[in-house]
Amino acid sequence: MALNLLACSTHSPTADDIQVGAEREALYLPQLAGKRVGLVVNQTSIAGQQHLVDFLLARGVKVQRIFAPEHGFRGDHDAGAKVDSTVDAKTGIELYSIYGKTRKPAPEAMADLDIILFDIQDVGVRYYTYISSMHYMMEAAAEAGIAFMVLDRPNPNGDYVDGPVLEPAFRSFVGMHEIPLVHGMTVGELAKMIVGEGWLETDKPLNLSVIPVQNYRHDMPYHLPVKPSPNLPNHVAIRHYPSLGFFEPTPVSIGRGTDFPFQVIGHDQHFVEDAKPFSFQPRSIPGASTHPKFEGVTVKGQDLRGVEAKGLELGYLVAWHQQFASAGEAFFTNPGFMDKLAGTDKLRLALADGKTEAEIRASWQDDLQAFKRKRQGYLLYP
């Protein structure tokens, strides 16, 4: 009744009015009756006050298997740390790792299932690997002839589209789709696009359905109720993540090993300083940052915790690159990884050529406009 009253009022929906797909049980529970269900979930898969696993079990749904992505089912694994297959101690349900020896389930892991539910909070950045895991699960579901359902969630970086569009030659697990770095789509919308554009590497059709978020717009600020991974602890980190991720293949720290990862930038010898001097000392944090850059070393740089990130900020990358270039030192110590993150080598080469931020941005505008036109038919929200 409350939802009907809301729909009839002049009230403009806010983040408080949002109902994520997992909470719209009337739309999907009937489709699970009598089905053997596989779940792709982690610590963000919350329906109301319950984890989706508990929510479904309490309603008599047969959860056959849980597929665990990067960071694990409980979200307590460091970035890149392999996830082992095991059994969930609380429920006794089999946990099947899709971030270890295999990233696409073997056919036998799908043979006793009728449907896959994907319910993971994404952050809208191409190199965040949950969407790559979703892609492989979609392929496996298509090949097994079973349905795939996305319980959609808002995108906390869904208010803009920016960055280079991935070139096929640079496809990897940190970038599988020809989309911009910041694509402005929810996982439900992206799943529709993956199917519609024929990006699944199978000739089998996929029975895809999406349970949409209620009362959501792309321009709506949305603070995640649960941190999506160990090094994105808050909204500030999530909003800076698209800009600071490019520092991973460099000698510069972005705060891994501190209480404020993806919210600071620092180095022990080269500095791009804020108006106020700032320093920090990374430490080893089990499950979040084991032996980070500059462990036990004091580094100086920029504190972005009080800076509102309104979009993709290339200025940080350009400024720090210039510091290293002027000292005659390599900035990208792993250029191949940088190119995978960017989805192209053009960004790295433009920086090496001394291109300005404006020149770099101008280089990808045509591709961005083409992407925006292409995605239009897959959008579920204004």
Give a structural overview.
The model is unreliable at 1-10 (pLDDT under 50). With 382 residues, this protein is α/β, with parallel strands linked by helices. Helix content is 28%, strand content 14%. Strand 7, helix 5 (130-144) and strand 8 form a beta-alpha-beta unit. Helix 5 packs across helix 6. It has a 7-stranded mixed sheet, with helices on both faces. The radius of gyration is 21 Å and the shape is globular.
Give the H and E element order: HHEEEHEEEHEHEEEHEHEEEHHHHH
Approximate strand percentage: 5-15%
Shape: globular
Radius of gyration: 21 Å
What strand order characterises the main sheet? 5-6-4-1-7-8-11
Low-confidence stretches: 1-10
The end-to-end span amounts to 24 Å
Main beta sheet: 7 strands, mixed
Number of strands: 14
SSE diagram, text form:
Layout: H1 2-8, H2 25-32, E1 36-41, E2 46-47, E3 50-51, H3 52-58, E4 62-68, E5 86-87, E6 94-97, H4 107-110, E7 115-119, H5 130-144, E8 147-151, E9 162-165, E10 180-182, H6 187-196, E11 208-211, H7 235-244, E12 264-267, E13 279-280, E14 299-303, H8 315-326, H9 335-342, H10 346-352, H11 357-363, H12 365-375
Parallel strand pairs: 1-4, 1-7, 4-6, 7-8, 8-11
Antiparallel strand pairs: 2-3, 5-6, 9-10, 12-14, 13-14
Helix pairs in contact: 5-6
Write a concise synopsis of the structure shown.
With 382 residues, this protein is α/β, with parallel strands linked by helices. The chain has helices at residues 2-8, 25-32, 52-58, 107-110, 130-144, 187-196, 235-244, 315-326, 335-342, 346-352, 357-363, 365-375; strands at 36-41, 46-47, 50-51, 62-68, 86-87, 94-97, 115-119, 147-151, 162-165, 180-182, 208-211, 264-267, 279-280, 299-303.
